[in-house]
Amino acid sequence: MHVKNILTEYGLISKFLHWVSALLLLVQIPLGFYLVDLDFSQERLTLENIHVITGLAIFYLVIFRLINKIINPTPKLDSSIFKGQKFLAKLNHIFLYVTILSITLSGILKKLFNGEELVVFFRTFKVQSNFELNELFYDIHIYSNYLIIILIAVHILAVVTHKIFFNDNLLKKIL
What we know:
The protein is mainly alpha-helical. It contains five helices and two strands. It has helices spanning 12-36, 42-71, 83-113, 131-165, 170-174; strands spanning 118-120, 123-125. The protein has a two-stranded antiparallel sheet with strand order 1-2. Strand 1 (118-120) and strand 2 form a beta hairpin. 14% of the residues are buried.
């Protein structure tokens, strides 16, 4: 098992970051949608705190993943995969990263413009309440979540499609 990526396979660091991100998103997305319809109560406050902490963990993890991507380049895709597929794969990954960052940043700004304090990068932030900005960032947060669900579905569908139709085992590279 390689710690860093090699030409044909992801290393332990990339695999760990990928699967921890996937697991956290698998918990975070349904939790967020559950919170939308939950009445104000102690349960809601507790779950909202878990949601915020998990969201910040995903944010830090994505930043770490991007740094890892710079210093630990992605394995090459098989030469049998045509350029259009490679482009779409890279585009989907870029959109995944941008959307996750959009979800997190809009969530942070939504909380701040709601008049709440938030600790980000070991620093406490608080801004003046602004209902219009709060609503704007709430909408961005919600729509970005719908987009991430679509992007994750496309990501999974691509792996399944490659296995079934092209006999490529892309999943093996990241397991």
